Amino acid sequence: MVSRRKIDRRKSKSHAFRLGQPFFMQVPKKLAATSLAGCALTTIYASHIAPKIEFEAFFLLICAFGAWFVGNRFAVLLGLFILSIQILNGHTIPIQGGPIIMALQLSSALAIVLMLGVARAALEIEWRAARLDPLTGALNRKAFFEAVGDETSQTGVTVLIYADVDGLKRLNDRRGHEAGDEALRDFADRVRKSVRKDDVFARIGGDEFVIFLRVNDTASAEIVAKRLHRVLNLAHFEGETRLKCSLGVLVLPAGSKSIDAELKQADTLMYHAKVDGVGLIMAISIKGDMQELMPFAPSVNSDGQQRSAIRSTERPIEVAIRDGFPKSSIAA
Questions:
Q1: Theoretical Cys-Cys bridge with 273: which of 79, 246, 284, 301, CB 3.0 to 4.6 Å?
Q2: In which band, very low, low, confident or very high, does the pLDDT at 93 lie, cut at 50, 70 and 90?
Q3: How many domains does the chain have?
């Protein structure tokens, strides 16, 4: 079995939240700033060795790109840098039509540059609003299928975790919807702290969440699922708004191309986990069929308190039936 330390140090990278964005919105700001600064220096050098050529349009274009890809502050600073270098190099600023006309030209150029930055910021806000759940900050259903649709084309073992928050309706009835909203935000924060940046975490219903992540093998999947279960359900909670959840964990082997049927299977596993009260049920999907990692009934102490919500072993369903597990039940 893969060690916990190895799983805890799984590679963290930028999340696939950018999926669905146009290419010109995916350029990293640091890369854009460095490239545009290099273009500005190159253009300044070109204007120095060819003073008869007017490079003002090139400088304006560089600043406009700076506003779009990096931001208005960077664009203004870049423009001031270009202007300062040009003045220090002895380039005179032609005044055609008097200072008023020149002021109008400069202010018009500045307005165009700043409007590009504002438009980019507004576009990003709208793009995020269309894909983020406003309450929890998790991806919404649309963004989830966008991200997972791209991930399923890659190789490797993936894990689909379907989580249903327990007790939300009861909390809403007793404490009001504000308390319920706070509980959902707290739940989402705990999940985010337990997964990597490139794992897909989405809210697809009122109290239903989905996590889609990639692991090395099924042993790693079991460790990750149990760790998440421990954080969400077994940790000591203070306060009534700290809700627990039921988890249905479906391990998808390499080559899985679809997610719709698998999502229903994970939902079914979650349902059995909720009904049977075990908290977590795992299974592995092979060509669309579920092969149970059969959970055993949780052990209890002398006070009747549950010691371990789940212990899973990977075995074919035929072996599980032969060993005495009922064919109609997922959990013993």
A1: 246
A2: low
A3: 2
Which CATH number fits the domain that encloses residue 238? 3.30.70.270
Choose the final residue of a domain: 103, 129, 155: 129
**Cβ(76)–Cβ(35) under 8 Å?**
no
Classify residue 8: in a domain, yes or no. Answer: no
Both 196 and 307 in a single domain? yes
pLDDT at 285 over 50: yes
| Predicted pLDDT of residue 17 | 53
Same domain, 281 and 157: yes
Residues 165 and 91 grouped into a single domain: no
